[in-house]
Structures are given as structure tokens and as C-alpha cells.
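task queued by scheduler; priority normal; single chain, no ligands, no partner chains; default sampling; output format set to C-alpha cells
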Amino acid sequence: MEKQDHQLPITKGSYTNYPKSKNTSIYYAIFLEILILYGIVTNYQQLYEHSEYLAGVCLGSFSTLFSQSISQLYRQSFSFDKHFKFFLWGCINSLISNFWIGILLHSLDNNIHRFLLDQTVGVLTGQLIFVFFNAFWESSLNYASLKSTYLTCLRYSYMIWPLVSFLSFFHLHEDYIFPLNCFVTLIWNIILAMIS
């Protein structure tokens, strides 16, 4: 009987399974990422005052990278390619998210409108950008695969992001919206890695 591959299209790719003794590089990566994230979080306000986008890229890229490391630790495998891919995605996503949050906060006065626009245009566009980024990275730009991955991403996305968006626009000060997104993205990526 053939073994089925239950990975999501976004988590597929080449992982190298190393013997436990060689797998220590993932532990070093996690330790270093925790130190860097600690530095970013403790200095976030100063980074933010210097540049909102720099602060966002630092927090977003390293939290995404950290979630990839936890995923690889869970799988007991290591892929530098996946580390670099998710670090780069964290940078891109941070810039897009910061820009999008700014548009919502400064263009709309009504929280209901912010929430609805975020859950329609924001989620649909954000997931589409990720799917294209992933397909480009994996050199798999075919319509059927893009459509399948996009619909899968949307289905999973709508399980968590409406609640996050609701909390963001109805209960949080605007300075905390982006950091909350980074934190939830970190947790969400770990969950996706474990269930896929």
C-alpha cells in the first residue's frame, strides 16, 4: 500500500533528515533566533520610532523564521532553503501587512468597515501574494496547483484571522495590531506545520 503525503502544498519541499547528532544545527538556530527576537521585542519601541517599517520587518521576518525552525524541529529535519524562504517571506509579508494596516487605520474611521475590508480584500490579496511567492520559489507556477493551494490557504486562514482582525480593530490600540499579527502568525505557522 502506498504511503500518502498529507503535507499542505505550502509545507511540501525538500527537507533533509539528519541523524540526531547532526540535527543540533536546528537547536543552534532556535537559540539564536530566540536571542534575536528577544532583542527585537525589548527594543521594538525604539525601532518603531526610528522606522515603522524597519521595526515591522525585523519582528515579522524573525518571528516567521522562528516558526519555521520550530516546524523543522518538530519534523526532526533541517532545510536551509526553507529557512531562507520563510525569512524572505517574513520580510515581504511585514512590509505588506504594515502598509495594509496603515491604510485601514488612516483611511477608514469605522471599525466594522476596517474589519470587513480586512477580511475580504486583505485576506484574499495577502493569501494570493503568498501563494504566488511560494509557487515562484518552488518553481511550480501551474494554474491547478495555484488554485488548489490558494483555496487551501484561504480555508485555513479563515479559521483564525477573523478573530485576530476583530480583536485588532475593536479591542487593541493601533500600535499593538502588527505585533499581534506577528505573534499569531508565529503560532499559526507552528500549528500548520504540526497538522500537515
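post-processing summary
- Residues 143-171 form the longest helix (29 residues).
- The radius of gyration is 17 Å.
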